[in-house]
Each structure stands twice: as C-alpha cells, then as structure tokens.
Design goal:
InterPro entries: NLP_P60_dom (IPR000064), Papain-like_cys_pep_sf (IPR038765), PG_Endopeptidase_C40 (IPR051794). Keywords: Hydrolase, Protease, Thiol protease. Belongs to the peptidase C40 family. This protein is of the alpha+beta class. It folds into two domains: about 170 residues, Helix Hairpins; about 130 residues, endopeptidase fold (from Nostoc punctiforme), CATH 3.90.1720.
Length: about 375
Amino acid sequence: MHRARSNGMKDHVVYQINRDRRRRTTRAAVLGSVVVATAALLPAPPVAIADPVRSADQILTRYRELSKDAERTAESMNSAQVEYNKQRKTVARERRVSAAATKKLDSMQKEMDAAQVKVDALARASYRGARVNRLYAMLVSDSPQSLLDNMSGLEIMSRQAATDLRVATDVAKRTRQARSDADAAAATARAAVAEAERHRGDLQAKQADLQLEAVQIRAIYKSLTGKQLAALRGPRYEFDARAVPKGTSPELIAVQAAISRIGDPYVWGAVGPHQFDCSGLMLWAYKQAKRTIPRTSEAQLAGGTPVARKDLKPGDLIIYYSSASHVGMYVGDGFVVHASTFGVPVAVVPIDKAGPYNAARRY
C-alpha cells in the first residue's frame, strides 16, 4: 500500500514536470512568432553604401567645377561689397542732408517767429482803432501841411505793414518747405540705412557660401597628386614679357603692371599687391596707371567701351563665361594675363585657354 502511494506521487510529479515543459515550449513559440511578425513590420536597417571611388580625372574635374563656382561666388561677394560700401556712403550723405535741413528749419522758425511778432503788432493796432488810410488823414488834418505830413507818415506805415505781411508770408512758405525737406531727408536716410543693412546681410551670406566652398576646394587641392597639379596648372606657354610694348599710356602701364605679377597666388577677394582674384588683378593694374575701373568682372563688362575681338589692343579687358564670372587682360599676340583659380598662380595664356570668350572692353 505504501508502495502504491509512492508510485502515485511519482506519477503526479512527472505529470507536473511535463505540463510545465509544454507551457514553456508554447510561450517560447508564441514569443518567437511575435518577434518574427514585428520584425517583418519594421523597416529594414539601412545598408551602408560606400562613396564611389573617384578616378584622378574625376577628382580634377570636380576641383575645377568647385573652383568655377567659388569664383562666381567671389565675384558676387565683391559686387555685394561694392553695393554695401555705396549704401554706407549714401547713408552718411543723407544723414548730412537731413541734419542741414533740420538746422535750416530751426533758423526759418526763428525768422517766422520774428515776422509773426510784427504781424501780431499790426493786428493789435488795427484792433485798437488805428487808421491807416488817406481819408482818415484828411479828416484829422487842420492844414495842408498837416495833411501832407499825416499822409506821408501813413504811407510809410502802410508800406511797412505790407512789407511785414509779405515777409511773414514768405517766411511761412519757406519754413513749410524746410520742414518738408527735413522730413524727406530723414526718410531717405532711414531708407538708406535699411538698404545698407540688406546689402550687408547679402554680403555676409555670400561670404559664408564662399568659405564653405573654399574649405572643399582646399581639401581636394591637398589630395591632388603632382601629376594632377601639373594638369591643373596647364602647360607653360612661350611668352616673352619683354615683347610687350612699353609706353606711357594708361593701357600700356596697366599691361606692364599686370605681367609684373606673374607667379603671384590666386586668393578670393584679393586686390593685390601680392595676391589677386581675377577682377582684383585688373583693378590693381589700372590703379598703377592712375585709372579707376569697376571692381568686379560683371561691372567691368558693364563699363568701358565695347571692342570687337579682331580689334583687341594691349590693355583691353576680356570677359569670360556668359555669367561674366572671369576676366583677363589682353597683352598682345593672342595672349591674356589673368588670375585663374586657387592653386594656379597669375599667368599668361592664349586667349581661349582662359575660358569661354564672352566680350571685350576698353578703359
């Protein structure tokens, strides 16, 4: 009996163990199904794709593209700087005009006050019964001489009163005009300040763009091999600077100044004397000839006298690209001197090696 009870207890324990196993197996299966279903609903993790490896030619092409973009940005930045400086001068001028108009208004107000005193005195005299006409003079005169004296005095009083009235009227008119001028000058000055701030914001944005582009360009430049650098700088052209005509004309002085900077580095926004951007070299060269030309390649295209390609003379500026984003100076014999791009020093090259020809201008 004891053995039967013992066997019954053993069977019960085995049953409990097997039941617990079945429950754990079921929970594991359900949990596995949930995980699988959830994974199916979730987006697949992104697969890291390595950047495509660029060839040497692709790297050099990318460098040139970035350099052109940077040059356009630099010229736009130069234009924004010119406009900002112009607006700052406008602000200063309009503020001076406004101050002068206000000072004139104060002076006119004093004249107006003095004239008003005289008019008020005349009005008070009339109110008290003063007579200033010839009939009154006849009635109060007891002799011909007295009549003449009274009429003479009244005539003087009448003329003075009329003069005072005219002066007061004129002063009032000029005072109103002075007030209007002062208000207009103040409004113009405020508008000039707002415009200057707008140009300053534009300038700062372009400077930021250029800085970002310059970082990329310098990074690529550092990675270029000697072969790539040689390809970037291009071949050396046979050019004898001594063959450039010398003279005292501004154009020839500018040419001599420009070719004297051969080998100097290209720097965005630089205007010399030892580093340049493209338009900065033109500006500096003509400055040596005591001649002022616009700062940017776009403005240089807009100024000067148009020149046909067949009529080019040393000193003429050649504008490149439809966007007028590059410029060089014709030095004769089919050559142009220009500041090309970052990493390439000032050099003399054939006209069409400096970029797509757009137009030429003579200053």
